[in-house]
User: Fold this.
Amino acid sequence: MRKFLLPLLIFLIACGGKKKEAGTKNENTYYLLSLEGIDSLKLGMTKVQLEKVLNTTLNLKHIKVDEAGYDTVPVKYKDADLILYLEEDRDSSVAHLIGLSTSYPSCKTTSGIAVGTDKINVIETYADHLKYVAPEYEVYPVRSLTKSVVAVMDTAMPYKALVFHIVNRKVVSMELSSYYEFY
Amino acid sequence: MKKVFLFLSIIVFSLVTRAQKDDHTLTFDGIGELKLGLTKAQLEKMLNTRILLKQIGLTESFTETVKTMYKGIEFELDLMRNDNVVAALEGVSTTSPLFKTPEGIGVGSDQLTIINAYEKDLLIISYGSITYTNINQIHASIVFVMENKKVVKVIVEPTAMFRDRE
Assistant:
């Protein structure tokens, strides 16, 4: 009986350890959002570079099509849904990344802000940054009573910002913008 | 008994009248009776003292800050050169806890209370201050100077955006 018990005990411990390891890995699959980009998608990347990382073709509706000069493209990055903001280039690179937004729960900032974080935590986390905190428009010019925005400005680049969209004092989506201006 | 009642009535009446006279409001217009736009002459009349300028009119400077006492409370007056009236009140600040916004915010209030009180308006939060501006009238602002997440000083002044437009 003892001969059976010992291998069984070793087997059970090994299984438990493996399960924990798998769980830890799953918990760590976050995509880090910073003022530079998200995970391996960085501001300034060209359309070709983005397509290589995303392994897909970005279909542009305005850039090199009409006079708009900007495009908003929904993409899948690994398992995360993102919206990419592209600006037209005059050279052969066609367009480059100027911003992105996501409401995917596994995206979080380097300081731990994610969908569901309290508005006050966002403000307190970025204590050293200039921040604009204001209600968003429900329908212009009417400001919302429940939706607001916390724009955390970059300390080096004056218009670059991490913009947190808030509903009922909780983050519902996050945005990285190269040209944020309060309006 | 009648005499006592009369005496008490006089005391109560004088206290009420005094309370009504003391303006402890903190608004976009100014702090208490010190309203933005008052001229140097008007301020001198209110403060019952002469304001001696060391910059405006004597140097190239357009602005000057003057410390003053008004009704026993210390204020800093930011004066701006004006062609017609020598100088006018451009900004005013105090560390007195007596002055409160209509929402009850003043020296001693904490950061969270301010953020919750002005959810419908624009707050510009930087290290060491929170600037509160009416979202529909961005001409003036109330700046709450913060230390350890508490207001230690209040300033009423034109917003940077408004100043830049002028």
Q: What stands out?
A: Chain A has three helices and eleven strands. Residues 15-25 of chain A have pLDDT under 50 and may be disordered.
